[in-house]
Task: structure prediction
Amino acid sequence: MHSTYIGLGSNLGESEDTLYRALDDIAALPHTVLHQVSDLYRTAPIDSSGPDYINAVARLATDLPAPDLLLALQAIELNHGRVRPYRNAPRTLDLDILCYDNLVQDTTQLTLPHPRMHLRAFVLRPLLDIAPDMVLHERPVNQWLAECDAQPITLYRRYADRPDKET
Result:
């Protein structure tokens, strides 16, 4: 199975609930196992406007090839009301493949690893929760995060405290 990290974000509608439902949808993908989910974080939009985002990162294993996983994630986005009226528009759900094994590719459909993940606190801080030893561009995640100090990020909710979690 392929080790994959997915970035999740939402700033329209019931963002927290949307992220939890999207995680359930990801876990239900064929030949896919959801292994870990970071805590949820609140961040201001970058290069855009609108309400604050709720963000998280999930680690999964999948037998789906990267292009098929991308299509599956886009279908989940659409199912949650995602529209793309313009670049960086506010969204009900954003799902990005951050890393897929150590695959490096740049196609019109998919660039891996995600080209800006090392510059975004909303990816790095949740990633630190579940992959503290990850190295991006030959530097640890925490070093990249330290350089994003102009991007405020606050803990929104611990994933372990998920309100709809079965007890």
About this structure: The radius of gyration is 15 Å. The mean pLDDT is 92. The helical segments are 15-27, 66-79, 121-130, 141-146. Residues 2-115 form a domain with the Alpha-Beta Plaits fold (CATH 3.30.70.560).
